[in-house]
Design a protein that fits this description.
Layout: E1 10-13, H1 19-29, H2 38-46, E2 50-59, E3 62-73, E4 78-86, H3 95-109, E5 114-120, H4 124-132, E6 136-141, E7 151-157
Parallel strand pairs: 4-5
Antiparallel strand pairs: 1-2, 2-3, 3-4, 5-7, 6-7
């Protein structure tokens, strides 16, 4: 997809009609064993305190969701970034940065003082992305993912 075939993204709140695309993007972005099932995504969206934003772009003459962030405002003033998914064709263009800023601002508005997330220990690109945003590794979560992969628990003060 060339840049002339798409427009700049618009970040907007998730809508129910986006659900199938979110599930599709998660399967595109993550391997089996790390990707969430549709049921897990639905449960995360239905959870009290959940929030989700999508990055929508015009691609080949139609609007399409090309990324999303799913987060949760939790107890103890701690937010949780459940997942952030960016279509491979749209990475390294600021989409993830925009989605994270939006989610973190919403979590801050909901009086969260910090936020946490998990990332596979072998996902160097994502770890670097989060570290640039101020997240720090706190501990290793052994066999965190369904496929047995370990994860870093990362944290950021909001």
């Amino acid at each position: 997809m060339s840049s002339k075939d798409r427009t700049a993204p618009a970040i907007r709140p998730y809508r129910a009609e986006d659900f199938a695309r979110l599930c599709e993007l998660d399967r595109i972005c993550f391997t089996e064993g790390i990707a969430y099932s549709p049921e897990e995504i639905w449960l995360a969206l239905a959870q009290r305190g959940s929030l989700a934003y999508v990055a929508e772009m015009r691609v080949d003459e139609r609007l399409q969701v090309m990324g999303f962030v799913l987060a949760h405002s939790g107890r103890r003033k701690t937010g949780h970034i459940v997942t952030i998914d960016i279509h491979p064709d749209c990475r390294r263009q600021g989409l993830g940065e925009d989605l994270m800023k939006t989610a973190e601002a919403h979590l801050r508005k909901m009086e969260n003082r910090r936020t946490v997330l998990e990332v596979a220990v072998d996902n160097a690109g994502a770890i670097q992305f989060y570290e640039k945003r101020g997240y720090r590794k706190r501990k290793t979560l052994l066999r965190y993912y369904h496929d047995g992969t370990d994860a870093w628990l990362m944290e950021k003060t909001l």
